[in-house]
Amino acid sequence: MLSLLIYLFLSVIIIHGDQNVINSIQSIINPDIEIKNCTFGEICNGTINSTSVHFYSVEYSFDPTMAIRVITNMTYKIEQEAPLVIVVRQIRGVISWTLPYTFSNGMIYSSASRILCLQNEINRTHPHTSRVFIEISTSNTDWIDYSLQLENITEFLLETGVSRQFFVSPAMPIYYKFTFPSTIENVFINVRSSDQLCTIVSVQSFDCPVYDVSEIGMRQGHYQTMASIASFNVYASEFPKRNTFLLVFLVQPTDADCLNDQEQTIIRPAGVIDVQRQKNATVTIHPPANYNFLYIAIFITIGLFLLIYFVAFTIMCKHADIYDHLAPDQLPLLEAIAEREIAERNNNQRGYQTFQGEENVVSTSESENEQSGGAIEVIATSNVGFVTVSDLCVKDYDYSKQKFRIYPQTMLTIAIFYSLPVIQLVLQYQLNINSSGNEDLCYFNFLCIRQFAMLTAFNSVFSNIGYCALGLLFLIIVYRRDMAYARFLTKYPAIGKEYGIPQHFGLFYAMGIGLFMEGLMSGCYHICPSKQNFQFDTSFMFIVAVLNIIKIYQTRHPDINPHSAGSFSFLAAIILITVIGVYYDEQWFWIAYAIIHILACLAFTGKIYYMGRLKVTFRVHIHLYRLVKEHGFFSRPRYLNRMMILIPANCINIAFALYGAIIQPESFPNHLLFVFLGNLAIYLMYYILMKIIHRENFTRFSIVFLLLAILFWSSSLYFFYQQVKSYEVQPAISRMRNRPCILLNTFDVHDIWHLLSSFSLFFSFLTLLTLDDGIRKEKRKELAAF
Question: Which end of the chain is more exposed for a tag (fewer CB within 10 A), N or C?
Answer without folding.
Answer: N
